[in-house]
């Protein structure tokens, strides 16, 4: 799956974009956050407060219980601060 | 609906004129322009990161929602990204309607929603030259403002 | 505070730029432009009568009141008089503040107050060429809108 | 006293501006409306619904009970319809 990171999530994981094979047990956006948090220290730091990290599947904002089944891309970022 | 995400500055007067376009059904046009502040001299520059593709899509969805809620004759939303200096314009919202209430409310709504739903992130570069640049924290007040419309 | 009562059209973009003037304390500028509508083709022209001297004074007082109520960096109010055609701009209000809430509310307030307190009267000239021109009736809704702020 | 009329009040009285000596019994803005209404048919028509006619003394909006004592100019007009 294609994974994108923005703002301080990007800085903490150390990459803007990558591709990863997800284990079958990772079925939802929230489960994907938990799984990513276990990769290494940088990912753990990025996802230390999982609840505030926003997820977009194929460029649509979703809740943590959203299924990854039909998504080809997941993006992770902090709460937006535009405007 | 005109939606743009761009590096370049925008021309507020030209955008208002283009939206009104002498359409004689329009009685009211409201514009909101957001500018980079210098925070009392503490800020040297503002860096705006965005999620290309999703940013345009999110702004278009928010504009559609405003169009569904109010009888608009049109709306324009432009958001810049990249590095901006104090005094630079960041964001522009323009709404047109037959009557002033709809134009005011729709512009207000667009700004509230855009702040919490459009994928842009601000990083502040301090002017003291020694402290590190830091990401702006989302404000609880912005969520409350967005909540006014639900 | 810039107040003007004039026959000539105004340049919305130039007024916004002049008010902002790259003052780095300003984070938000809201403009409201009111235009002459054609009422679905029924209106040929709008005649705006005003009370010279009192009109400028009333607009200045309303702008001062907005300035007392909100932390503004400045405000501009321009109202035209004379004969206007559908599509012509009639009135412009621009407000500048550090934050968007004050700029929005002050512009909204200025328009509400101006409608009920500034001495201008509209006479509609119908496009059918036979019916007589008639004075626009004040709307109860405008008094209610103005009442929102007290 | 200098008297000014605007919009349909002006059209009904038939003049935009005039000067009139007021009787001593006319002390307030409201009393001046009533007195003007008695001048002729045009004035009567202009002031037929006295309550809705606005008064400005020396270019300041006032209520009907405002005293004319220090005013040099009174203006009469319908509710405003600008903006």
List the helices and strands and how they pair.
The complex is a heterotetramer, with 2 copies of chain A (83 residues) and 2 copies of chain B (150 residues).
Chain A: E1 2-5, H1 7-13, E2 17-19, H2 29-37, H3 41-46, E3 54-57, E4 60-62, E5 73-77
Parallel strand pairs in A: 1-5
Antiparallel strand pairs in A: 1-2, 3-4, 3-5
Chain B: E1 2-6, H1 12-20, E2 28-35, E3 43-50, H2 54-69, E4 72-80, E5 82-84, E6 89-97, H3 100-117, E7 120-126, E8 134-135, H4 140-147
Parallel strand pairs in B: 1-4
Antiparallel strand pairs in B: 2-6, 3-5, 3-7, 4-6, 7-8
Helix pairs in contact in B: 2-3, 3-4
Can I get a quick summary?
The complex is a heterotetramer, with two copies of chain A (83 residues) and two copies of chain B (150 residues). Chain A is an alpha+beta fold and 83 residues long.
Model description:
The complex is a heterotetramer, with two copies of chain A (83 residues) and two copies of chain B (150 residues). In chain A, 27% of the residues lie in helices and 23% in strands. With 83 residues, chain A is of the alpha+beta class. In chain A, strand 3 and strand 4 form a beta hairpin. Chain A is built from three helices and five strands, in the order βαβααβββ. In chain A, strands 2-1-5-3-4 form a five-stranded mixed beta sheet. The termini of chain A are far apart. Chain B is of the alpha+beta class and 150 residues long. In chain B, 34% of the residues lie in helices and 34% in strands. Chain B has four helices and eight strands. In chain B, the strands form two sheets. Chain B has a four-stranded mixed beta sheet, with helices on both faces. Chain B is globular and about 55 Å long. The relative contact order of chain B is 0.24. The mean pLDDT of chain B is 96. At the B-C interface, helix 1, strand 2 and helix 3 of B face helix 1, strand 2 and helix 3 of C.
